[in-house]
Write a structure and sequence with these properties.
It is a single chain. By secondary structure, the protein is an alpha/beta fold. The chain has an eight-stranded parallel beta barrel with strand order 1-2-3-4-5-6-7-8, surrounded by five helices. Helix 1 runs parallel beside helix 11 and helix 5 packs across helix 7. The longest helix is centred in the last third of the chain and has 18 residues. It is globular. Bound molecules: phosphoenolpyruvate (PEP). The site of phosphoenolpyruvate has 13 residues, from strand 8.
Amino acid sequence: MRRILVAGNWKLNGSLQSVRQLVADIKAGLGDLKADVAVCPPYVYIPEVAQLLKGSSLGYGAQDVSDQTAGAFTGEVSAPMLNDFGCKYAIVGHSERRSLYGEGDDFTARKFAATRKAGLIPILCVGELLEEREQGITEQVVSRQLDAVIQLEGVAALADAVIAYEPVWAIGTGKTASPQQAQDVHAFIRGKIAALDAAVAEKVQILYGGSVKGSNAAELFAMADIDGGLIGGASLAAEEFLTICRAG
Ligand code: PEP
């Protein structure tokens, strides 16, 4: 039985003060949740969040990571550095990285590899644009994004990873994929992995992301192949985020 994971992606939001408040509010409301919960603050707040979460079951990670370990790569943060601060996860290949910063499948695969090498769990984002869905090529797109990682790292690498299916048209738009639309793609992803390694397919957590809210989380998480959510906007409000976590 796969566990439910709910991960909050805070993106480029917050201040030291608001981060402290948000962490305190989430911690206070965690109770005895069944789901695993994590937050991904902006890099600079990770040391603060690490301090605030000492001894807590709430995990944390980064929103991105370098494909490099060290050297002349101005502005980059490596996976071993994230490890130094106790990060458990790093998101790789978020659609905003892909579309706004031109990060392609191979580059994302190298970030995935660097994350695993440092002992962190990559949260690999995949998902199609609206026009790709309209052209009926959702599965081809998701397949191509997954293949880059499978070719570089092998399918077994996915056993210790998290995949987040995030249809780009649903991110930050308020348009959520219906539970069935999401389930169909999740089942496709799991089936594709199962064709290579059934045990890996059974183990890998596949999260859904795209305008998940307290009001729609339960029906999404109830689908057979949806193992939780990657949450953007709704992870910035503690009560809303906790409602999503309780749906798991
Ligand atoms: C995201 O950016 O990963 C995301 C799912 O955002 P939102 O929940 O705001 O759609």
